[in-house]
Amino acid sequence: MAEDDAGSRDRLVIGAADMISRRGLNATSVRELAKHAKAPLGSTYHYFPGGKQQVATEAVQFAGDLVARTLIAELRAGPVAGLRAFLKLWRDTVVRSGFRAGCPVLAVSVEEPHVGETAPLQAADNVFKQWESLLARSLRDYGATRKDADQVATLIVAAVEGTVAVCRAARSIEPFDRVAIQLERAIAAALGAK
Amino acid sequence: MAEDDAGSRDRLVIGAADMISRRGLNATSVRELAKHAKAPLGSTYHYFPGGKQQVATEAVQFAGDLVARTLIAELRAGPVAGLRAFLKLWRDTVVRSGFRAGCPVLAVSVEEPHVGETAPLQAADNVFKQWESLLARSLRDYGATRKDADQVATLIVAAVEGTVAVCRAARSIEPFDRVAIQLERAIAAALGAK
């Protein structure tokens, strides 16, 4: 694929991730995606012959990979550093968008899929599991038992996703600050209980 | 209002809460709501002259009140009993619907509102704050400091909402079990640190 092609295709995926995180999957159309990314509608179907399901699936994977790369880099300094980086990513997204954007993975997870259109939901499941797995491995590396590591990793992913929604409803970042302190305590307890 | 009227009106609100929790707010229409509740379209606009925004706002309040009543009743036996009842409500909703339904308050919170249509989102904010307030008061009554009580209450609401989404994506209830144990630990830590 030529560099320009890759650029246009990527812009569509990135635009889809943003749009889905703002308004949900059902309310996102290929037509609006093309408009949002300033791309011709024909080129959108050229890049994504599978239509909306394909773009949405790639958008979820794109968001998943972006977060996973940050987690991998920051977890080198330990689980608390990883948690802080994870929180910062979502906090920045919510604040910069004026509490209008959130997480496309969460958005896809709260909409029941139509028959034969489960690819985005399956991608969301994979993303959540990848984030949990990265956090759990780091917790184990720092001394948590497997059980505690798995539980705290799931708590972190679920709580941060939920906090994004609570903050959007409140149009306030305060819930993030509260949850951050409690999640650091959960990590400390899991590491201390080794 | 006659009893029959109240019944039809309530059915529409309950149907809206279910529909929004499955497919989101943007993808829910008054026409489909009427169909879902087996009510004539005209009667829907008769009961809800404000249209979809009004039904959605009342649906969020209905879900909020339902959960709040359970919390008020179960928190009499302490914060852990309240947490367990809160978890059970959502677990039952997710399992009984085959992982297709979730929380209408969460659904409304992850969709950016159109101009002048913020009433459902404001209702969602009020509901989250009410649940947090009930949990925080119980935690304080059982010895937590105000700060810890507020933090743990927000963690519980955010984590449970996030877990509903994670479970729907995974089509598995396991994340609920993990998060439940960690939230009980957070309560124990907050009560022990008095």
SSE layout and pairings?
Two copies of one chain form a homodimer.
Chain A: H1 3-23, H2 30-36, H3 41-47, H4 51-74, H5 79-96, H6 104-109, H7 119-141, H8 146-170, H9 174-192
Helix pairs in contact in A: 1-4, 2-3, 4-5, 4-7, 5-8, 5-9, 7-8, 8-9
Portion of residues in beta strands of chain A equals under 5%
Biggest sheet record of chain A? none
Shape of chain A: elongated
Helical coverage of chain A, percent range: over 70%
Q: In terms of per-residue confidence, which ranges of chain A show pLDDT below 50 for 5 or more consecutive residues?
A: none
Biggest protein-protein interface?
Answer: A-B, 51 and 51 residues
Summing up helix and strand content along with how strands pair, one would put the structural category of chain A as: mainly alpha
Q: Quick check: average pLDDT of chain A?
A: 94
- Multimerization state: homodimer
Q: What order do the helices and strands of chain A follow?
A: HHHHHHHHH
Whole-angstrom Rg of chain A: 18 Å
Q: Helix tally of chain A? A: 9
- End-to-end Cα distance of chain A, whole Å, is 50 Å
Number of strands of chain A: 0
